[in-house]
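Friendly challenge for the regulars: who can give me the structure tokens for this chain first? No prize, just bragging rights.
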Amino acid sequence: MKGNVPRNQYESWLKTMPADYCAFCDIKGEQKVIEENEGWVWVVNRRGAYLPYQTLIIPRRHIVELSECTPEELTLMQELIQEATQDYKKLMEEKKVPGKIMIFWRFRDESTRKNKSTDHLHLNLMPYKGEIFDHILDPDAHLTNF
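First reply, four minutes later:
Bragging rights claimed.
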């Protein structure tokens, strides 16, 4: 699947792929690479983006959990995040996209991992949209006692 693809079409297409298919292991040619280093690649998310200007920082090696990264991979990730964040801020200024940027990844346990669109660790770097998390926010979270 090449080119810019809406999220629903991307998810439908993924369901047709073999169970062991990883959309991020074969990233070259499928996504537009912005920057890269020996361990990580920063791409424009053209397949199934959640928001305009969404980008992804993806390890070259198939990694599911952050704890699987080697110390060298963690250093390379940090370097690419720093470069990407600086470049992304410049891009947002050029495109006149107001506001902050956010970077995040989601952790899942075994019970939710099987429902995930890809089982390959990746970070999302995109314009800040507070409402993107509205569906998971609990207004009573501040009442939690540890």
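The chain has three helices and five strands. The mean pLDDT is 79. Your move, everyone else.
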